[in-house]
Amino acid sequence: MVTAASQWATPPETSKCVRILIVGGGSVGLYTALRLQQKLKAELGRDEAEIVLVSPNPYMTYQPFLPEAAAGAISPRHLVVPLRRVLDGCRVVVGEVTAIDHAKRTATVATLATQETGETTQVSYDELVLAPGSVSRTLPIPGLADHGIGFKTVEEAIGLRNHVIEQMDIASSTRDPAVREAALTFVFVGGGFAGVEALGELEDMARYASRYYHNVRPEDMKWILVEASDRILPEVGEEMGRYTVTELRRRNIDVRLHTRLESCVDRVAVLSDGARFRTRTVVWTAGVKPSPVLAASDLPLNERGRLKCTPQLAVDGVAHAWGAGDAAAVPDVTAAEPGRETAPNAQHAVRQAKVLGDNIAHALRGEPLETYAHKYVGSVASLGLHKGVAHVYGRRLKGYPAWLMHRMYHLGRIPTFNRKARVLAEWTLAGLFKREIVSLGSLEHPRAEFELAAGGKSSGNPKGSS
Fold first, then answer.
1. How many angstroms separate the CA atoms of 51 and 99, rounded?
2. Are 95 and 288 in contact (CB under 8 A)?
3. CB–CB of 111/94 below 8 Å?
4. For residue range 359-372, what is the model confidence (pLDDT) as tens digits?
5. Residue 285 has pLDDT above 80, yes or no
6. Taking every annotated instance into account, which residue ranges of this chain make up the domain FAD/NAD(P)-binding (predicted)?
7. What is the pLDDT of residue 10?
8. End-to-end CA distance of the chain
9. Domains of the chain (ranges plus CATH)?
């Protein structure tokens, strides 16, 4: 692949200008850039500093709201934050960093134009912030790559919603018992936040939607949660984890602990306990791993592939490099056990970003660095409308109070007043009107109808995606 230069990739015109390159536009990238805009306002105004943020998407996704978006409680455009609007003091580049040579202070970036020209761009920098986040961690399970569905992006969440409703349409329109059984069987692999919340919200949504089908009842659907360990939602504590299993089983959800997915070839989910299910839906939420860009750098990584960082969020043993969030192994100075690291979750990511922004400003001014110290306060999880669990500050809540706490906590954490107001308005309207149960699967193949009309071969189903 050819390497080229571009206007934004060349060194700043002012020799004294310090370029800060932020890799990743998630929680850490966004909040670090916001903090730097505030702390370096004078330097930015005098062209003594420049902030460049490279992100694969022009928006940040507030992932805790993905389950509610999948259930239709929140519009997808309201859980994403446009980077260019919020980061008006930064240069936002939509692209992907494919390699980093910190010894030369350069990063290789593939932009949207790379697909057309075949050329990547070399970006020089003075300070590097690595916050690329994580990607889904998959296993070499037969059939998973062909039939599995992820749940980490807003596109996957909306696609899964469309898919579930479409399966109900398929079941309603066929007399073939095998097709009907496969359409109404939903297998979720992974008992963490993503899997449990997605399952809880979608089952709740599908049960509500079934009242509008003349031949699909809630008891016709099979919802199966597969977890390899002996508990689910470990973040909310053992007691709340057991309560969650009881609550899900009360809703006729089949929770299988100490169980693994061994195959899903030919749309048949084979579990390690010997069970076999014909299914058209296998949702994979069994963990994440650091972004591949870390392995394509010359920076130190730990045994799990995460960036080795100090409590000040600097890369251990490397000058002018910083890290935080899912991709960084940050020592937890509040933990009683030595060697413990902060959990890779949004609670730490947002707080680390503020300290990270402050420390970069301190380093540029020759000031002492701050140590990141935050004691984990607990977790909240939604299990569907008016249902949830929480373990916060040692207090355990369940049912409606936990669900309300979940909503209020995340409403306070989603960036910008604009998004807070829009989400709150949607929740208010949802309380006054009935749920929307429309599948817009055709959005995934917007040209299919026109291709058929023009006499070409359609690349997808114009009426939906199955």
1. 19
2. no
3. yes
4. 999 999 999 999 99
5. yes
6. 19-352
7. 54
8. 36
9. 2-136+289-364 (3.50.50.60), 144-286 (3.50.50.60)
CA nearest neighbour of 168 among 121, 216, 101 = 216
Rounded Cα distance between 390 and 378, Å, is: 8
* Residue found by looking up tokens 């706490």 in the block: 405
Residue 167 confidence (pLDDT) above 70: yes
All residues at 6 or more sequence positions from 310 whose CB lies less than 8 Å from its CB, including other chains = 316, 331
Of 1-15, 182-196, 393-407, highest mean pLDDT:
182-196
CA dist., res. 160 & res. 156, Å (int): 6
Alpha-carbon span 48 to 29, nearest angstrom: 21
Report pTM: 0.88
Find, among 222, 233, 246, the residue nearest to 382 by Cα.
233
Q: What is the 3-state secondary structure (H, E, C) of the chain?
A: CEEECCCCCCCCCCCCCEEEEEECCCHHHHHHHHHHHHHCHHHHHCCCEEEEEEECCCEEECHHHHHHHHCCCCCHHHCEEEHHHHCCCCEEEEEEEEEEECCCCEEEEEECCHHHHCEEEEEECCEEEECCCEEECCCCCCCHHHHEECCCCHHHHHHHHHHHHHHHHHHHCCCCHHHHHHHCEEEEECCCHHHHHHHHHHHHHHHHHHHHCCCCCHHHCEEEEECCCCCCCHHHCHHHHHHHHHHHHHCCEEEECCCCEEECHHHEEEECCCCEEECCEEEECCCEEECHHHCCECCCECCCCCEEECCCCEECCCCCEEECHHHEECECCCCCCCCCECCCCHHHHHHHHHHHHHHHHHHHCCCCCCCCCCCCCEEEEEEECCEEEEEECCEEEECHHHHHHHHHHHHHHCCCHHHHHHHHHHHHHHHHCCCCCCCCHHHHCCCHHHHHHCCCCCCCCCCCCC
Q: For tokens 């306990």, what's the residue?
A: 273
Spatial neighbors of 333 by CB under 8 A, at least 6 apart, are 311, 371, 372, 373
What is the pLDDT at residue 441? 66
Name the pLDDT band for 431 (thresholds 50, 70, 90).
confident
Residue with the two structure tokens 């929307």 = 436
Judged by average pLDDT, the poorest of 150-159, 269-278, 385-394 is: 385-394
Q: Give per-residue pLDDT as tens, 328-380.
A: 999 999 888 888 888 888 888 889 999 999 999 999 999 999 999 988 777 88
